[in-house]
Specification:
Order of helices and strands: EHEHEHEHEHEHHE
Oligomer: single chain
Largest sheet: 7 strands, parallel
Distance between the termini: 42 Å
Mean pLDDT: 94
Low-confidence stretches: none
Length: about 250
Amino acid sequence: MAGRLDGKIAIVTGAATGIGSATARLFVEEGARVLAADLKEPGAELAAAVAANPKALQYQKLDIRSEEAWAKVLAACVSAFGQPNVLINNAGLGSSGKPVHEESLEAMRASFDTNVLGAFLGMKTVIPGMMKLGGGSIVNVSSVWGWAGIKNNAAYQTSKAAVMMLSKNAGVTYAPHNIRVNCVLPGYVDTPMSRTVTPEEARMLMEFTPLGRRAEPEELAPVFVYLASDESGFVAASNFMIDGGMNAL
C-alpha cells in the first residue's frame, strides 16, 4: 500500500524529541525519506527509528542559527536521499517569561536568532533546490502565542509572530514556483520544552485550552504529513492552529 509521502525527501529540524521526533517518524511510516536534524543528541524514540530504518531515516547535528551548518545538512540530505522537496522548520527556543521592561537585549536577540533567523536560513538553504525541482512544501512552526496576546513572554511572542509573517511572505512569494509555505501554530503540547513551565503556568495553560489537556506530539504529526503531501496541493500561505481551541478565547 502506497504511503501518503511516497517520493518525498524531507529535512525535519528540532527532531531529537517532541513534535519533531514524532513528525520525522511518521513521515518515514508514510513513505518519506527523512534527514532528522537537531542541536541535541537524538532521543530514544528517534534513535530507535534511525537504527530500524537507516535507508529512510538519518540524523545530522544542526545549529539552525548557522548558515554553514545548514549547508552541511543540505549536502548530507542530498548525499543520502536526494534534493529535499519538504522542509519542516520545527526547531525553536522557548520563553524566558519576562515582560518588555525586564527582558534583556541578549534574550530578545537569542529568540530572534533561533526562532526567526533559523527558519529564514532553512528556507534560504532549500528553496533554490525546490525551485529546480519544480515545487515543494515548507512548514514553519510558530505558536498560538505568536497569534494571541498574553502578558509577559515578550521575546518569545514577538519572535513567533515574526515566524508567522515570514511564512506568509514566503508563501506568497514562492507560490508561483509551486513551493507551498505554511505555518503551524501549536498550543500546549507535552514536550521537553513545555515541561519546564511552573505549576502556575501549567494551570494557566490548561485554563486557556478548551479541550482541557495538553496535546501529545503524535497528535500534531499528522498535520505535518498533510501539509507535506500532495493532498494539500492548494494550501499556501496559511496558518494551522493546533491548540485545543485556545485561539477562540
